[in-house]
Amino acid sequence: MSARSWFAPAVARLRGSNPYAVDGALAAAVLFAVSLQWIFPGARDTPLTWQGHLLGAATALPLVWRRRAPFATACAVSVATPAMAVYHAPAPDVVYGGLVVLYTVAALCPPWQRRFMLVGWLLGVTLTIVHKTGAQPFEYAFHLMSVVSAYALSLLARVQRAYTAALEDRARRLERERAADTERARAQERARIARDMHDVLAHAVSLMVVQAEAGPVVVRSDPARAEAAFDAIAGTGRDAMAQLRRILGVLTEDRDAGRPERLPQPGVAALPGLVRQVGDSTGLRVTLRVTGEPRPLPPDTEVAVYRVAQEALTNTVKHAYASSAIVDLDWTEDELRLAVTDDGRGPDASGADGGRSGPVADESWPAGGHGLIGIRERAAACGGSAEAGRGPEGGFRVAVRLPGAAQRRQAALG
User: Fold this and answer.
1) Under DSSP, is residue 372 helix (H, G, I), strand (E, B) or coil?
2) Gap between the Cα atoms of 330 and 267, Å rounded
3) How confident is the model over 64-116, as pLDDT tens digits?
4) 142-151, 184-193, 291-300 — which is least confidently predicted?
């Protein structure tokens, strides 16, 4: 066991002890050191008197209150010590009590009290040695250096405590900031999961409702078509369950060793499959048009493109009574523009159509219609923008602009 590993816990326990017990033990130690002159008198011309012993005790006993009243204790010891020296019965060889009160004052008192006590002790020690008969030159250096050393050690300890307190405060702040960041990340992840679940369920249920409504109509006249509709319902349900399992999988913190890896979230590459699925399931003619050269996108933007297109087509199926829809992907050097336009029922004069639409301006998006709100939030989360409203030739149009990977990095650095 190293000395440092033993010393640090011992100091911590000492600081946590009863202050009266610790200071009382310190006063007893100082009194014992002062009394050594009476225990081992040696060869002296000056007799040892009980008055001198009382003055020596007066330099030690006030230390019991050194932390409750540091300046008053220092004044009491500062009076008793020179009185003992002047009385010469006997003069103190080491000012034990003075060193303790100087350390205490430097650690606990305001600046003016610290400076007053240091200057007073330096002057007092010098005058006492001058008054002393037969004083040697080395005694000046010894006593003055003792006073300065006690004061300097206390200042160093004070600085160390302040530095330790600052480090502990910084660690607490960092811990609070880390907890806040973690909570924000959890909230963002919960919001993302909620948006994904809404998109998956709304899309799948809308397709299933359309097929379920069409099935009974053709079950007698066209059994093959009815069977295809029911197969589409089953396939859409299975696909929705698979996507929900993938989304909810992020809520499971522990991954079993034998569990296969979860598939990534769908992105731009999955758009042709989405278009085919909507067309095959609902009879809606959906066309995917791509212009420009595809460029790399951040992972969250990839998911946003797919989910925006999915939500826009779901709205078309549920609300538009449209016969066709066009999904436009326009790649430019700086961004990707996605637009979904149908030929169905557009917004009415008030800017509302079943909670689906509103004027183009962002501030006029409807309070209801969680799908369109989710589209706007997804675009904003990726650093882009979204618009929704009447199409250029009627119908309804949803358009988003999403920055590419290079622009996202540049915006983050800027």
Assistant:
1) helix
2) 15
3) 888 888 888 888 888 888 887 776 555 567 788 888 888 888 888 888 888 88
4) 184-193
Q: Are 338 and 402 in contact (CB under 8 A)?
A: yes
- Extents of the domains making up the chain: 3-135, 264-414
CATH fold for the domain made of 264-414: Heat Shock Protein 90 (3.30.565)
Measure the CA–CA gap between 317 and 193, rounded to whole angstroms: 23
Find the helix or strand (DSSP H, E) in which 289 lies: strand 285-291
383 by Cβ neighbours in 10 Å (0-12 / 13-18 / 19+) ranks as: middle
Considering the chain, what percentage of its residues have pLDDT values greater than 90? 6
pTM: 0.45
Token pair 């040696």: residue: 42
Amino acid at site 305? V
Report the candidate in 148, 51, 150, 132 with the shortest Cα–Cα distance to residue 93: 132
Question: Which residues neighbour 206 within 8 Å (Cβ) at sequence distance 6 or greater?
Answer: 314, 317, 318
